[in-house]
Amino acid sequence: MSGHSKFSNIKHRKEKSDAAKAKVFTRLGRELIVAVKHGGGGDPAANGRLRDAVAKAKSGNMPNDTIDRIIKKAAGSTADDNFDSVTYEGYGPGGVAVIVEALTDNRNRAAANIRSAFTKGGGNMGAAGCVSFLFDEKGVITVSGEDYADEDALMMLALDSGASDFISEDGQYYIITEPADFSAVREIIEKHNIPASAEITKIPQTNAKLESPDDIKKMNKLLDLLEEEDDVQNVYHNWTGEQ
Fold it and tell me: pTM, whole model, 2 decimals?
């Protein structure tokens, strides 16, 4: 692949997340809590959703003792720690497609704050389904070429494990899976002690460019405002260009 990658927004989100580790840990912690309460309890061996959440937390550099503490607290708590999963869709400047995934204990607050972010960022929140058709949901397992140099061996392992695609780009290897195959492929990569980050994500089918400096400024503002929202877990978009 050349030019602007479909994966550029994934890398962009990770860079933003690394700059706000405390907020990232809060989001990862919420995913662990939801996985325990709605995925089948606090034993990762019996809870596939929790296994994926733990793997994601580890790839986000959350310490093991923090992960264990959150799981034990969630498993032993009778408190109403229920977070609703809500997805919002809309448009950024220049018609850029944006999807926002939230985990919130207050839907009204989340909707108001996210709508405000769209408005301040020069966009507008739309109806459910207005842009989701422009994205494909896939499992993406990312391995750095610096951590694992044998591209051919990794590709064969990935494809033999059930991956649907393997992409090498800019010193990174992207193992692509269907959502249903994600856990199995991730666990095989993990068993081979290959350092990787893994997530179920939304990959844009096409990319959008912004030519206007004003639109680029507004789009960056929109992404920053959304990332700052405590209820927001993930932000997906199809904008490539100046980040």
Answer: 0.82
